[in-house]
Write a structure and sequence with these properties.
InterPro entries: Calycin (IPR012674), Fatty_acid-bd (IPR000463), ILBP (IPR031259). The chain is mainly beta. It has a single domain, classed as Calycin beta-barrel core domain (Lipocalin, Beta Barrel), CATH 2.40.128.20. Helix content is 11%, strand content 55%. The protein is built from two helices and eleven strands; from the N terminus they run E-H-H-E-E-E-E-E-E-E-E-E-E. A nine-stranded antiparallel beta sheet has the order 4-3-2-1-11-10-9-8-7. Strands 5-6 form a two-stranded antiparallel sheet. Strand 10 and strand 11 form a beta hairpin. It starts with 8 loop residues before the first strand and ends with a strand.
Amino acid sequence: PKGTMAFTGKYEFEADENYDAFVQKIGLPSEKVEMGRNCKIVTEVVQNGNDFTWTQHFPGGRSTTNSFTVGSEADMETFGGKKFKATVKMEDGKLVADFPNYRHTAEISGGKLVEISTSSGVVYKRTSKKIA
């Protein structure tokens, strides 16, 4: 069945909540903590049915791309650059992935990309506005 194309677009970081508590919880190195703080990450999503290409462009030209198909195991890379395998699921219109030390969800809500990562009870929320 063809999924909705709801996720396709380019989104720019707008706001986040609980960043410090979350990166501390997942053990992000301090130089990466500073780099990621209020970082104007641009997230580019291409959705074709259940196939996704999810790219995060960081200031300074670095980018990370994860390609995955909903329901199939894929090779992924974390925020901190660790490589791992994960199966992304679709639950109630949200993409859900279990990363090595946190659970990540992404959804389109009110035209914005809302991403929530949860690790041992610490909830980190990042909102990005659509720019293309």
